[in-house]
Design brief:
five-stranded mixed beta sheet, single chain, 232 residues, two-stranded antiparallel sheet, alpha/beta, extended, 7 strands, 7 helices
Length: 232
């Protein structure tokens, strides 16, 4: 487990942070869940590998029951991802399936939701539906259960969403948003420089004038982007 992942888990395990995240991302900022109504639950479950029959353990990042007195209302789980996980729907299906299986002996079952908090600086481009990962034989499509994962790209939350946070999660989201803006600006500068490199009809002086920078600054930006002056 990486230090960053551990830090995220520790932060989210605080009831006020956990409640804030769910209230903003699920309930659009409405204060539906109070910190005092959250109760920790186990994050470990087991599954058997079909290839060798070995029993393995799987671990959620953070999971809590939302309570109304002594009555369970829902089970909410948070999963942190810094890198895109191509098979995330399979993982979430496993987590939620184990949670429902654990309620088999209960008098009544409660809904289980999982929020995938993605902290990466690139957009999530992997599949979000379980069915999209499966090679389903023709004629079986309508009988195969699907699952859609709830991925929230924290660096791309809107300013309105970020303003809804009432805990330290606001600072985390703002910082990631700023990092995304800075990254986009740098990529934009690199693409502008790239356009100049591809244009063989202008001189470095003309290119610098177009970008409103000095030739020395243009040369520096080109080196940072990994380019050299075009050959005329």
């Amino acid at each position: 487990m990486g230090i960053k992942d551990l830090t995220e888990k520790i932060l989210e395990d605080y009831n006020d942070i956990f409640a804030d995240i769910v209230n903003v991302l699920v309930f659009k900022g409405k204060q539906r869940i109070k910190p005092e109504t959250l109760v920790n639950t186990g994050v470990h479950s087991q599954y058997k590998n079909d290839k060798n029959g070995v029993l393995h353990e799987q671990e959620r990042d953070v999971a809590k029951y939302w309570m109304n007195g002594k009555v369970r209302i829902a089970l909410c789980g948070l999963e942190n991802q810094t890198a895109v996980e191509p098979k995330m729907p399979l993982r979430v299906f496993g987590y939620e399936g184990a949670s429902y299986r654990g309620q088999l002996e209960e008098k009544s079952a409660v809904p289980v939701i999982t929020l995938v908090l993605y902290f990466g600086n690139e957009h999530w481009r992997a599949e979000k539906h379980l069915k999209d990962l499966l090679d389903i034989p023709e004629g079986m499509e309508e009988y195969v259960n699907d699952l859609k994962i709830n991925v929230f790209e924290i660096a791309w939350l809107t300013d309105e969403q970020i303003s809804m946070f009432k805990s330290d999660m606001c600072e985390v989201a703002e910082r990631l948003e700023q990092m995304g803006i800075e990254k986009g600006r740098l990529e934009g500068e690199q693409m502008t420089v790239y356009s100049f490199v591809q244009d063989k009809t202008i001189t470095p002086e003309q290119g610098a004038h177009k970008l409103n920078i000095s030739v020395a600054e243009l040369e520096k930006k080109m080196k940072e982007a990994g380019y050299t002056y075009p050959v005329f």
